[in-house]
Inverse folding.
């Protein structure tokens, strides 16, 4: 496993993407989006989102410079860059793990050409002469409902792309709600082509009873938060609500994460994290922040090997341009995986990157043949005190 | 055009026939019958009923796959509790059993609350919204893609300052998702910041849990005495995951287990699909990131999934009024073999208030998934169209040296999304191809010139490509890295042609 893997081929393509990469990786405070790559949406309430997108060979579609403007409030930056920084697939029969983002890439030829039926009512965006990104706005049901017929229906902006790797397909979707909520996730579909001889590591499918191998995907999201106008003064808080010994009451405990941290979920303590700006506040003087609502837990195993990057769920690091892939990070000046990125750097009022590992186990079924009915693994980023009241 | 017309006429005729026979409500009055046939032909039909406590419940729930057989999935589903303990222990509500979400606690919905849907009345009041929604993507494999549809049914019930939105989603592929939205306004405020969140108006919104429970009376294929409930774990043994299926023989209360990625399955013991596999549904608790493990007085919060025998007196997960008082007592050792089985599932949302929650609180949502497993023999929504041949990318001629370690990924695709099988002839000695992934790998052992032919087949049609692979003998002392380098140089000249090919060269160091 210590083999150094040199990836060649793609000569011209790689060369150009390297040039592109060198400018896009340093995430400057004055970020400038490539011409034609901005997406913006203003809802009827006046709430608005704007962001930039780009395509990389490895991560596929990467969203950056994401701003939210609450209705009747200030436009502020939320995220510098959001990418799917690795997909590790572990097969239940212990056949070789795959690291899809670095071994194959979600961009390049993996990135699928979308047709209008996959983007109904939306707008397709081109990259390298192909329609690869769907932008669509639609109604999203209730924002809230209250007494005296106080009620509001909301809308959302959705951005979607698809990548095909060895016949498996990954739909990558981010939804931006009118109330500031971001919901992001991966839907797996395509074909399950792997079979096994190990009867406990697969499920008999089709009339031939072939054993389709069951497996776990670990999706590693890289979230470079840049709350407010400065990208270098974000503060992460870890908040727990600890039950009393009789479990009748809970006491909130807030801890500022002052140096890099690898953390695991503790659902019984309701542990969660929020990223706040050190200086910018809402008009009631509360720090503006986003919290991570990470509800995916029932399949959040720590992997089949003792790989250190699978041992935790959330990693908080100081921004480092060469920390790009959660696993198989090849930049020589950086650690090779996210567990090594956590090396005691100060994270108090810094440029913060949060890495979130989301695990999803699949036991194939007859219904997946074929194609596989999409299975989503989503997480939510929720504004917390972004505004002093509900602006909708 | 003609074909389409015939199809439409046929569908129309079929639906007319259907309504006059099989589609008529057989288990309830027409006004309580929901019968949704999606544009692709899949169908859900069921009855609904109003109850003062549970609100709208659903009975006799049947799924008909596209071109498939109509079968009962569930005899009855209902919300079984909304338990809301506050962090300061100031109060611990049991909203459903104590207050109820039916009757006067059910809102009259306005048409703008049910966009593109239809409102269904109870006692002259529009209480239920029925909508059919087209999804983004139901599946995709190359160009074989479908959006898919789901039926959703919801009502809205205020309980105190909270407004609950129980929603049932029935998908055209047989999946069911019970959802619960909670909106309205925060109910309780205090002054102690350690029990909640200091809001902009200097009140502390007190943190609280919503423990939502559902009671699911499965009667797969309508035969109510031959369902089995199984727990499936994937145990880690020497780097492998060994699937272990444990059938329950008596009533049980169980927790999720991330390390074994546990889920549960309800299976009919006699009915099989066309592949000979038992028809079943998986119950997947996908949102367990918040959990309540409450005080000893609330043992029903100590587990997530429960199996009991069906008992009409067992209605509420807690504060149950006749029979046992809560789920923990319902699980009392009765045999579930050859008995009518009920599954209970709980999902928790922990609400730490935010300033945005005032004066009105945006809805937060919780759900679980009930997913068919081998209910159908295949993906019933995928059209079997005329087969398209696969395509294979050109591979440029290659130069290597003996003892080079090679990993070469042959790129092929199939617009129908078929599984592909790779075959190769005349590979340099020492190399082999993975017939399902198309990866050529190994260490070259013998010099020579090889005309390599690669063929990829989708089972019906195939495509092939060929190229020359010149293998020279490695000079003494030269490392395999040298071989890699020369190939890299060659590749940079052929970069455009190699667009479709990944090469990885392993350099042992």
């Amino acid at each position: 496993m210590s083999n150094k893997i040199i990836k060649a081929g793609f000569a011209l393509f790689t060369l150009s993407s390297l040039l592109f990469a060198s400018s896009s990786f340093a995430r400057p405070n004055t970020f400038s989006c490539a011409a034609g790559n901005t997406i913006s949406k203003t809802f009827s309430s006046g709430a608005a989102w704007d962001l930039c997108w780009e395509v990389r060979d490895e991560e596929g579609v990467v969203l950056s410079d994401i701003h939210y403007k609450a209705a009747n409030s200030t436009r502020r930056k939320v995220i510098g860059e959001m990418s799917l920084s690795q997909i590790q697939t572990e097969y239940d029969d212990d056949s070789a793990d795959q690291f899809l983002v670095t071994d194959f890439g979600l961009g390049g030829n993996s990135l699928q050409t979308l047709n209008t039926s996959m983007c109904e009512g939306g707008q397709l965006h081109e990259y390298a002469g192909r329609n690869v990104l769907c932008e669509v706005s639609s109604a999203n049901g209730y924002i809230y409902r209250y007494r005296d017929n106080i009620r509001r229906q909301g809308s959302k902006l959705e951005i979607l792309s698809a990548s095909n790797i060895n016949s498996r397909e990954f739909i990558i979707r981010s939804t931006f709600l009118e109330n500031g909520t971001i919901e992001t996730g991966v839907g797996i579909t395509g074909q399950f082509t792997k079979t096994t001889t190990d009867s406990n590591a697969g499920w008999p499918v089709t009339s031939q009873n072939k054993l389709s191998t069951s497996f776990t995907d670990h999706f590693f999201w890289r979230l470079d938060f840049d709350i407010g106008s400065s990208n270098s003064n974000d503060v992460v808080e870890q908040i727990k609500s600890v039950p009393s010994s009789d479990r009748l009451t809970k006491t909130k405990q807030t801890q500022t994460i002052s140096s890099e941290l690898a953390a695991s979920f503790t659902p019984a303590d309701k542990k969660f994290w929020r990223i706040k700006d050190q200086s910018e506040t809402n008009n009631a003087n509360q720090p503006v922040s986003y919290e991570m609502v990470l509800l995916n837990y029932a399949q959040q195993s720590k992997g089949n090997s003792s790989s250190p990057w699978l041992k935790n769920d959330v990693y908080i690091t100081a921004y480092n341009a060469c920390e790009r892939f959660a696993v198989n990070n090849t930049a020589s000046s950086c650690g090779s995986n996210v567990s090594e990125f956590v090396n005691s750097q100060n994270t108090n009022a810094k440029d913060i990157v949060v890495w979130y590992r989301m695990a999803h186990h699949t036991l194939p079924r007859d219904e997946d043949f074929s194609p596989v009915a999409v299975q989503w693994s989503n997480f939510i980023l929720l504004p917390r005190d972004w505004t002093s009241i509900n602006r909708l | 055009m003609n074909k389409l017309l015939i199809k439409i006429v046929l569908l129309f005729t079929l639906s007319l026939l259907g309504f006059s026979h099989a589609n008529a409500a057989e288990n309830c009055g027409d006004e309580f019958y929901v019968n949704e046939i999606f544009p692709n032909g899949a169908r859900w039909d069921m009855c609904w009923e109003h109850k003062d406590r549970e609100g709208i419940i659903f009975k006799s729930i049947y799924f008909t796959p596209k071109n498939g057989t109509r079968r009962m999935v569930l005899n009855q589903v209902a919300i079984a509790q909304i338990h809301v303990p506050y962090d300061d222990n100031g109060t611990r509500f049991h909203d459903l059993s104590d207050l109820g979400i039916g009757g006067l606690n059910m809102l009259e919905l306005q048409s703008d609350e049910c966009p593109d849907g239809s409102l269904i009345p109870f006692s002259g009041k529009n209480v239920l919204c029925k909508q059919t929604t087209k999804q983004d993507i139901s599946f995709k494999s190359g160009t074989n893609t479908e959006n898919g549809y789901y039926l959703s049914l919801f009502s809205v019930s205020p309980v105190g300052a909270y407004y609950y939105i129980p929603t049932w989603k029935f998908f055209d592929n047989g999946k069911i998702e019970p959802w619960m939205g909670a909106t309205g306004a925060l109910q309780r405020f205090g002054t102690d910041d350690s029990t909640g969140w200091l809001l902009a108006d200097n009140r502390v919104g007190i943190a609280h849990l919503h423990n939502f429970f559902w009671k699911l009376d499965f009667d797969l294929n309508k035969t109510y005495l031959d369902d089995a409930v199984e727990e499936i774990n994937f145990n880690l043994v020497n780097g492998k995951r060994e699937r272990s299926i444990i059938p329950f023989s008596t009533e049980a209360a169980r927790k999720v287990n991330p390390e074994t990625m546990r889920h549960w399955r309800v299976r009919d013991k006699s009915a099989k699909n066309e592949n000979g596999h038992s028809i079943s549904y998986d119950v997947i608790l996908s949102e367990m990131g918040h959990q309540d493990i409450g005080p000893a007085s609330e043992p029903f919060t100590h587990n997530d999934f429960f199996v009991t025998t069906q008992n009409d007196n067992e209605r509420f997960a807690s504060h149950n009024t006749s029979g046992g008082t809560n789920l923990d007592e319902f699980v009392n050792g009765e045999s579930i073999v050859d008995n009518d089985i009920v599954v209970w599932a709980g999902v928790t949302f922990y609400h730490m208030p935010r300033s945005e929650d005032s004066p009105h609180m945006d809805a937060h949502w919780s759900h679980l998934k009930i997913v068919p497993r081998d209910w159908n023999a295949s993906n019933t929504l995928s059209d079997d169209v005329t087969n398209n041949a696969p395509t294979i990318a050109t591979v440029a001629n290659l130069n290597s040296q003996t003892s080079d370690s090679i990993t070469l990924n042959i790129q092929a695709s199939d617009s129908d999304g078929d599984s592909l099988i790779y075959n190769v002839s005349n590979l340099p000695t020492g190399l082999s191809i993975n017939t399902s992934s198309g990866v050529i790998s190994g260490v070259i052992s013998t010099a020579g010139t090889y005309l390599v032919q690669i063929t990829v087949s989708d089972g019906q049609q195939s495509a092939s490509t060929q190229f020359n692979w010149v293998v020279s003998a490695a000079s003494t002392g030269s490392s395999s890295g040298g071989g890699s380098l020369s190939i890299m140089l060659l590749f940079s000249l052929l970069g455009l042609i190699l667009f479709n090919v990944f090469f990885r060269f392993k350099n042992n160091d």
In short: The first strand of chain B starts at residue 33 and ends at 37.
